[in-house]
Design goal:
This is CbbX AAA lid domain-containing protein. It holds the Pfam family AAA_lid_6. By secondary structure, the protein is mainly α. It has three domains: 1-32, no CATH class; 37-122, Helicase, Ruva Protein, domain 3 (Orthogonal Bundle), CATH 1.10.8.60; 124-190, no CATH class. The protein is built from eleven helices and two strands, in the order αααβαααβααααα. It starts with 6 loop residues before the first helix and ends in a 6-residue tail after the last helix.
Length: 196
């Protein structure tokens, strides 16, 4: 029997049940490294080919950039992420090209533009993205409070005032809440205009 998943989550899963822990000792754990971008692009080519599409050289370069953007935290899904990107590009292409008076080649080539992330989505701040999520009201309020507190600390420093003494426990608590909810990518971005 095999179990696969993110390392920390799998340790928690195994440790949560003493019966499992005795059947799956640590010596049986295998840590698999993430694929390199070059390997992921080969996987992308294979997924595209399985769907009767071909990646242009320019699209491979853009896909490489896109993979770098996607690797923000431990939730990066390797081949799963690539599969989702390729399928999104295929759907995007299908929704943008008119069938009338088009060459079939237009429908089989995935170009650079098919992998460019929506500029509106990119320009949206992490705080706005977090606020668009349903629920999580207490988390949203905590993030707003922490950002305001840090901004005030910066303001006091710039005015040569003594900043309030505080510990990083609040920041640690917010990070743990975000990690638990698998939202760690919002944490650093909510503080991107804040100097520590």
């Amino acid at each position: 029997m095999y179990y696969a998943g993110y390392p920390e989550e799998m340790r928690s899963f195994i440790n949560a049940n003493p019966g499992l822990r005795s059947r799956f000792p640590q010596s049986n754990f295998i840590q698999l490294p993430d694929y390199s971008n070059e390997e992921l692009i080969k996987i992308a080519e294979q997924i595209a080919a399985e769907n009767d599409y071909i990646l242009t050289e320019e699209s491979k370069i853009e896909l490489h950039h896109r993979l770098d953007m996607e690797r923000v935290d431990d939730t990066f899904g390797n081949a799963r992420t690539v599969r989702n990107i390729i399928l999104d590009a295929i759907f995007k292409k299908g929704s943008e090209i008119s069938v009338q008076d088009r060459d079939i080649l237009q429908f089989t080539l995935l170009n650079k533009d098919d992998f460019v992330v929506d500029k509106k989505k990119m320009s949206e701040s992490a705080t706005d993205q977090l606020n668009r999520l349903i629920g999580l009201d207490s988390l949203k309020e905590e993030m707003k409070s922490l950002a305001t507190f840090v901004s005030m600390q910066q303001f006091r420093r710039k005015k040569d005032c003594q900043p309030f003494q505080y510990s990083c426990i609040q920041f640690l608590q917010a990070t743990l809440v975000l990690e638990k909810r698998r939202l760690p990518k919002y944490m650093p971005s909510c503080f991107e205009n804040v100097e520590f």
